[in-house]
Amino acid sequence: MHRIMIIEDEPAVREELALLLKNEGYHVLPVTDFTDVPQQTANYRPHLILLDIGLPGGDGFSLCVNLRKSADVPIIFVTGKDSGADEVKALSLGGDDYITKPYSVPVLLARIKAVLRRINKAPGADVIEIEGLSLDLAKGTVSRGTKKAVLSRNELQILACLMAYAGEIVSRADLIEMLWDNQIYIDDNTLSVNVTRLRGKLKDIGAADLIKTRRGMGYQL
Hints:
The protein is an alpha/beta fold.
């Protein structure tokens, strides 16, 4: 089970994040004492850190630099600062990703999973399974039983996002934002085409109608 440390000084945001991640099955440590975060990090040994920029007695930039001296843990900045300069600074100092508030929950969860996949060396870490469907992120294939289909990059990212937030509605805007954030340039019409193609491939492996359209809202797995 992955351990995630939340370094956020606003109690309401911290508690919201902690509850969200616990419900997703993660072990969570919300930091409430900011006097010695590097030591807490060493003790907890998180797989991922969610880090705000504005912190008591300092800032997330300086803390990121200090953490990088002793730990190789991935760091995602989650902050209300939306300037390009802050994002560039955060990434140049060792951040692995940068998400601005207010964030989209499906996009946040998808990007957390993406970062964890990149650092997880365990066998099978690149495979997502749900509803009898197995998505191999490393090979770019989806299978059900003995049947398998090869997915395009767009189709792979779309299905991975829907599977990461299975049971919930993911809006078209959230999918487009997620794909753009992963440097996959896509618009609304292109999204429709890719979802149609993805549905066709799922039908070929016996998973027809797995992706449901919720009119006016988005898609649901």
